[in-house]
Specification:
511 residues; alpha+beta; Cytochrome p450; 4-stranded mixed sheet; 11 strands; iron ion binding
């Protein structure tokens, strides 16, 4: 039964007549006299949950304009502080980073992952170990460079799929295929044994996993409405997906262990993420646990799942938004194509990663796309580990904290023409650095501080190469007879995506 959680929640609220009784808003004081953040009027029991809508980042921006850059909401039983300014984001991710460094318990993450997952795990030893393994062993510059051949092969295959598609191209399908190809080969290897029925079952399984991970369950916020999750089929789907995913990953890990026993280990530049994680596992077993947290199969599975979900969804979503913005801005499209084609030069037949360093305007386009369309506009929620403060307001321990990165990136107080696509606004930046500046909290598409996303170095070259390849080989336009401009409506999920499918006309170009 496909029922919107917001529709179900509103239905129950109407039945119980709670909409008739509004609680007075304001800025209540805590027990010690210090003021909590201001709070808009809410509903008894449900609080502000029915008020945030299907695109919460937009609704929260409107609420912040009225109540201030730090608000206290009651999402059912969950006290939640929303930070909607660069100054507030800086306090959360830098000034008081440690106090805000944990994660709340998220029901679907608990069902689908273990405490080892790097993204959703609470602050503690499990998270520290996962972060260390990811940064040192999986996402180092050397490791990311080792997958260059995969990215280039998948980009060439992507261009081939566009040529075979003819004039009308479903660019969503092309880009998701590229993204899945890159991350699948990086994580699992090149032998293809994981590709159940040509990869269709694998794609469906990971698609279900990502969809569930982006679902907010009723029972998490309002325990007496947990039955809604069962009615919607979320519990049954989560159980089925978790079991199927666990069985698949156990098989992949067992196959890798068997291969390692039966042959010499491949060179460092040809090992996938599972090999690297097994190296860590074997090294820790050899050294002895020493009373620490064991890095076992459950840890390996959790890290694989988070890596796959994060790398696939955010990369694909950003590329779709970038192409949509360029279609609506033909001058910028021509400028970036001229840059790419000049960099490849006469006699060149394809874009390689050696060309990417020369593509400064392409980097500006990607950065402006991320400003306007952060894949996770509210990032992942933080949770306070102790009583702390935010812009002078008291924030008690175990409070959920949301950073509205989307609202911060469109704040007219800090950005000129804040809602317009203007890549040149970043022209003065040092684009050799990553996307998590320790200084500029006006732009935080990947978060920052302890809980910032360490996968940026893996995602960015994948995006740059794919977009450069598409823009080098083809001229793009909207289908004839249709709208003259692409509608930029959003659709919520694990990430916020373009609602419309990106059907474009691709005209092959040759030097």
């Amino acid at each position: 039964m496909d029922v919107s959680p917001f529709a179900a929640l509103l239905f129950v609220a109407l039945l119980s007549l709670l909409l008739l009784f509004f609680r007075k808003g304001g800025s209540p004081s805590s027990g010690d006299g210090r003021r909590l953040p201001p709070s808009p009027p809410g509903l008894p029991l449900l609080g502000h949950l029915p008020l945030i809508g299907s695109l919460p980042h937009r609704k929260l921006q409107v609420m912040a304009a009225k109540h201030g850059p730090v608000m206290l909401l009651r999402l059912g039983r969950v006290p939640t502080v929303v930070a909607s300014s660069a100054a507030a984001a800086q306090e959360v991710m830098k000034t008081h980073d440690l106090a805000f460094a944990s994660r709340p318990r998220v029901r679907m993450a608990e069902r689908l992952l273990s405490d080892y997952d790097m993204a959703f795990a609470p602050y503690g030893e499990h998270w520290r170990q996962s972060r260390r393994v990811s940064v040192l062993h999986l996402l180092s510059q050397r490791r990311v460079r080792s997958f260059r051949h995969i990215r280039q092969q998948e980009a060439a295959a992507m261009a081939g799929r566009v040529r075979r598609a003819g004039a009308a191209v479903n660019l969503n399908a092309v880009l998701i295929s590229y993204t899945n190809g890159v991350i699948s080969r990086a994580v699992f290897g090149d032998d293809g044994s994981y590709e159940l029925d040509g990869g269709e079952k694998l794609a469906k399984l990971f698609g279900d996993f990502e969809e569930l991970l982006g679902k907010a369950t009723m029972g998490e916020f309002v325990p007496w409405l947990a039955w809604v999750d069962t009615l919607m089929g979320l519990e049954a789907k989560a159980t089925r997906t978790s079991e199927e995913m666990g069985a698949l990953l156990e098989r992949i890990i067992a196959d890798h262990r068997q291969r390692r026993r039966g042959s010499r280990r491949e060179g460092d530049n040809h090992r996938d993420f599972v090999d690297v994680l097994l190296d860590v596992n074997e090294a820790e077993e050899h050294a002895g646990a020493g009373g620490g947290v064991p890095f076992d199969n459950e840890a390996i599975k959790a890290m694989i799942l988070v890596m796959f979900a994060a790398a696939t969804d955010t990369t694909y979503t950003t590329m779709v938004w970038a192409m949509a913005e360029l279609i609506n801005h033909p001058h910028e499209m021509r400028r970036v194509q001229h840059e790419i084609r000049a960099a490849v030069g006469v006699g060149g037949d394809r874009v390689t990663e050696e060309h990417l360093e020369k593509l400064r305007y392409l980097k500006l386009v990607i950065k402006e796309t991320l400003r306007l369309h952060a894949p996770l506009p509210l990032l992942l929620p933080h949770e306070t580990t102790e009583d702390t403060q935010l812009l002078g307001y008291r924030v008690p321990a175990r409070t959920r904290v949301i950073i509205n990165a989307w609202a911060i990136a469109r704040d007219p107080a800090t950005w000129e023409r804040a809602d317009e696509f203007v890549p040149e606004r970043f022209a003065g930046d040092d684009l050799t650095t990553d996307y998590m500046s320790a200084q500029d909290f006006r732009f935080v598409p990947f978060g920052g501080g302890r809980r910032g996303c360490p996968g940026v170095a893996f995602a960015v070259p994948s995006m740059e190469l794919a977009l450069a390849t598409m823009l080098y080989h083809f001229d793009w336009e909207l289908p004839a007879g249709g709208a003259s401009k692409l509608e930029m409506d959003e659709m919520n999920g694990l990430s916020v995506r373009l609602k419309a499918t990106l059907h474009l006309v691709a005209k092959p170009w040759s030097p």
